Amino acid sequence: MPNYDRSRMVFVTADGGTLEGATRATEIERSITIRASEDELYRLWRDPQHLSRIMDHFATVTAVDGGRHYWVIPLPIGQIAWNTRTVAEHPSESLRWEPLAGPRIFDDVSVHFRPAPGDRGTEVTLRIRFALPSGIVGCVVMGRIDTGLGLLVNTVLRRSKSLVETGEIPTLAHNPSARGSGDTI
Amino acid sequence: MRALCWNGVNDLRVETVPDPEITSPRDAILRVKLSTACGSDLHFIDGYLPTMREGDVIGHEFMGEITAVGSEVRSVAVGDRVVVPSFIGCGNCGYCQQDLWSLCDNTNPNAELQTPILGYPTAGIYGYTHAFGGYAGAHAGYVRVPHAEENCFPVPDEVSDEQALFASDAWATGYMGADFCDIHPDDVVAVWGCGGVGLMAQQSASLMGAERVIGIDRFPERLRLAREKAGSETIDYTAVESVVDVLQRMTGGRGPDACIDAVGMEAHGTGIGYAYDRVKQALRLHTDRGDALRQAIVACRKGGTLSILGVYGVLDKFPMGVVMNKGLTVRTAQQHGQRYVPQLLDHAAQGQMDPSYLATHRFSLEDAPRGYEMFKHKEDGCVRPVFVP
Ligand SMILES: [Zn+2]
Ligand SMILES: [Zn+2]
């Protein structure tokens, strides 16, 4: 396929090796209720800028072309990057990001929207199938995603909710402290 | 700027830290005019509450003057004298929309530190551990207030700085505790604790029409304030055999219609624990504290209301069978300040209630560590030390 140079795995180990070996697959599903319509959320989650902002703590997502997205997880040594194809079988109900060939951290990502009772908004369910490389690379990735996979998925949902409901993600940037900037613990 | 920083167990120091900045278009920066210590601060000062970090600026009860606002702030402006509730609300989540501001979904940047224990995160709060948000506190020259339109309440000219200061937490908490009791004109309300929150709960209960209010404590000067300032009858629990018996005698054998616990674990030293490694060392859980709460549960009349304002740990024993068999209604929360502050400022402006006597001692910010010492040991009848940056 043309124009897919960026889909090549760009992770390089310190000794110039490449990523190999078996992967461990783990699927995590978490839900949150957001005060917004399914249509609005569907539109936002298709926007790579929204994805990048809510995954800001560990990944960036950019649009390539025709519904293809380029995902990058930086690591202390190198990075892991891969392309996905967006699958929207049920507009305003669900979205799926299916990985194209090559190594990756997320084997499959999908988000589902359904109306919450009353005027509570929309129930948003995020499902991520992690394909964690084994061995040292897996350890490095886990170190990067150090709060654990469930917390990672929860945090992504929480950040999306805050951004949609309040226009911002709560932050401790420039938080005064006598010992460096007061970031999360 | 100068700020009071936590540096470890019983190690508070006034240090120079960077000034806060506008980080979102909805922020405001306040020049702090007054701030005060709170009993709940003693949890982390004494080392019972995890997720503090060396260098953290502490303090969550404050008022001041707005010196900068973000581009989207319209309803308040630079120069406004404002009071700010200690829990930060967003105004737009389902909880804020229902006036349950301390439960806000969108203001705790460290939400995932709380979810393993609480299930869902609380709102963020200033200067009160990283699990509760990690925001820099207000014992400082300046403080950043997120969502300024929802959290900054302009103070009318007739209301003094000190009156406004207590509306930020102690008064709002006590008032909420009385509000929880749905007071009827012939009700008897008993309040455990005559510290800042307990005194405010007693005075608020009277204002809401309670027939009689009874304050319970052991410090003579606090009991005197309860009688003289809040108009309460008082019980010195060290001078009686059984508080429950005394309350029964005082109420014709019925018991108080509502009981407010404004003590919590503060006097005894245990705190909210989190599922992290340090918890076991940090918690030092005493299993037999909470006498005030147990007394309140037993003393309360059948079908009465139990209003809990004291801050408890997450593993405390609670005599659920007594609550159930007596058909008590339990109401509790961290303060929903934004719901009450406008009413409180109105009460102060109308001269209906004045909380300023809580400010028994005044210190410059530089002397704040001394103020906390005095407050902790209740020296010289200290109810609340007020700090002036
Ligand atoms: Zn407080
Ligand atoms: Zn909210």
Automatic annotation (TrEMBL), chain A:
Keyword GTP-binding (UniProt): no
Matches recorded under InterPro entries: ORF3 (IPR047137), Polyketide_cyclase/dehydratase (IPR019587), START-like_dom_sf (IPR023393)
Short name of one Pfam family: Polyketide_cyc2
This protein's UniProt keywords: Plasmid
Keyword Ligase listed: no
PANTHER family: POLYKETIDE CYCLASE/DEHYDRASE AND LIPID TRANSPORT SUPERFAMILY PROTEIN, POLYKETIDE CYCLASE_DEHYDRASE AND LIPID TRANSPORT SUPERFAMILY PROTEIN
Protein name (record): SRPBCC family protein
Species this chain originates from: Halocatena salina
UniProtKB/TrEMBL annotation, chain B:
BP term (GO), one: small molecule metabolic process
Stored Gene3D superfamilies: Medium-chain alcohol dehydrogenases, catalytic domain (3.90.180.10), NAD(P)-binding Rossmann-like Domain (3.40.50.720)
Domain of life: Archaea
Signal peptide: none
Residue intervals of the Alcohol dehydrogenase-like C-terminal domain: 196-266
CDD domains reported for this sequence: FDH_like_1
GO terms assigned for molecular function: adenyl nucleotide binding; anion binding; oxidoreductase activity, acting on the CH-OH group of donors, NAD or NADP as acceptor; zinc ion binding
Cofactor(s) the protein needs: Zn(2+)
Pfam family for this entry, one: ADH_N
Domain Alcohol dehydrogenase-like N-terminal: 25-157
Entry keyword set: Metal-binding, Oxidoreductase, Plasmid, Zinc
SUPFAM superfamilies in UniProt: GroES-like, NAD(P)-binding Rossmann-fold domains
Family listed: Belongs to the zinc-containing alcohol dehydrogenase family.
The protein's name in its UniProt record: Glutathione-dependent formaldehyde dehydrogenase
Species this chain originates from: Halocatena salina
